[in-house]
Known about the structure:
The chain has 88 residues and is an all-alpha fold. 66% of the residues lie in helices and 0% in strands. It is elongated, with a radius of gyration of 19 Å.
Amino acid sequence: MAITRDRPEAAPLKPVVSAYSIYIQEESKKLKEEGRLPSGSGGIMKELGPKFKSMSAAEKAPYAKKAKEIKEKYEKEMDAWKAKQSTK
């Protein structure tokens, strides 16, 4: 019989999220599906970075909204985790 230990539950991982990172993730997925994914480690950033920079605030808004939603979800999970840890 194996000995088990009570280990504290790990805290939720903090997502690295910004409007830019959401944009890069979505656009790189599209490029990959189209077969136009640039080669090399910095190729995707060289192609998509200037495009994002030139976008208007209105065009960036959906990406900022998604980033905000992910951040809020993380904060709720973290608050719940902290509350659970303080009751132990």
